[in-house]
Amino acid sequence: MASVAKQKVHDLVYSKKFEFLIMIIILINCVAIGLETYQPTPALTNINFVCLLIYTIEISLRFAVRDSLKGFFTDGWNLFDLFIVVAGYIPEDLFENAGLVAAFRVLRVFRILKLFKTSLELRLIISVMIRSMRALTYNAMVMLIFMYVFAIAGIYLFRLPSPENLPDDQKEQVTAQLQKLYEIAPHSPGNADDPYGTLPEAMFTLLRCMSGDDWTDLRYNLVTASRMNLIPVSPVIITIFHVFWYVFAAFLLINLVVGAVINNYTEIMEAEKKNIQKISDRMKD
Fold first, then answer.
1. Are 58 and 15 part of one and the same domain?
2. What is the pTM of this model?
3. Which of 33, 149, 167, 254 is the most core-located residue (most Cβ within 10 A)?
4. SS3 at position 16
5. Among 53-67, 71-85, 120-134, 215-229, which stretch is predicted with the lowest mean pLDDT?
6. Residue 205 contacts by C-beta under 8 Å, 6 or more apart in sequence?
7. Do both 197 and 235 map to the same domain?
8. Domain boundary, last residue among 118, 149, 169
9. For the chain, what is the domain count?
10. Is there a contact between 193 and 158 (Cβ–Cβ < 8 Å)?
11. Is residue 79 part of a domain?
């Protein structure tokens, strides 16, 4: 009798109707969490608590019909659900620090990610993302190495002079030229530092170029600085440097990442199809 009851509960928990019901609950919870950002009310608090109770029932039922204790706790989705449920029962007034309270409230937002569990296709996409992140380690290393090399080259070529490091007889002249430069070609945005003033700033500048964010404006500003003799390179070098980096980074390095993701997606889809076929063959036997 116990095994029959367990099988019925198993069929219920893993049925399409039950998954659809949980998806509706998650959507209601998502809406309530979003509305709380405007005006928290007791009604929204009660809705969130009821959703939490339903999540607790769901994870309890899945724990009850588990194949094995090890299999349950080695499933990443089960661990994620446990984290969501346990975090939901921690009272906010337990923390005195306002920053900790804010961080704790952010944890509730992760309930929205439970939507990924309700659909096989969404779970496959998440699996592709996780597998791609593992496989892209060397791609990221290659990207960082090239970015580091170009950043150092950019500092030597395009860094604007600092009046503090100049002799007194040149300080006033350079300061006046810099002020004129900022009037003609101000940084974008206006409170930005010298794009190639430091190594971190230079690497961030190259990242901006990769995304296509105002990289042409950056080139125009540097050309103006070159014509004012504030940097020791010609406009041609400035143009070649930035065009080459944009083409190299945006069309080669990023496409390497896209190619790796597509390859992982294909492999995971083929593996999933084989698993479905195996299950289908077993049911026929």
1. yes
2. 0.64
3. 33
4. helix
5. 120-134
6. 151, 154, 195, 196, 218
7. yes
8. 118
9. 2
10. no
11. yes
Token look-up 């405007």 returns 38
For residue 193, what are its two tokens?
């530092």
What is the CATH classification number for the domain harbouring 56? 1.20.120.350
Give dist(CA 265, CA 127) in Å, integer. Answer: 8
**Domain shared by 86 and 191, yes or no:** no
H or E element, residue 67: none
* Beta strands per DSSP E along 61-166: none
Q: Pick from 179, 162, 172: which is nearest to 231 by CA?
A: 162
Q: By residue range, what is the domain housing residue 238?
A: 137-263
Please tell me the number of Cα atoms within 13 Å of 52 on its side-chain side.
20
Range of lowest pLDDT (130-139, 143-152, 180-189, 219-228): 130-139
Q: Helix crossing, 199-211 with 215-227: angle to 10°?
A: 130
Residue count (the chain) = 285
On whether both 114 and 142 belong to a single domain, the answer is no
Rounded Cα distance between 160 and 148, Å, is 19
Whether residue 166 sits in one domain with residue 72: no
SS3 content of the chain, % helix, strand, coil (to 5): 80, 0, 20
Separation between Cα atoms, residue 149 and residue 259, nearest integer Å: 24
Q: Is residue 250 part of a domain?
A: yes
* Residue 140 CA: distances (Å) to CA of 134, 135, 147, 248: 10, 10, 10, 15
- Between CA 27 and CA 31 the distance in angstroms is 6
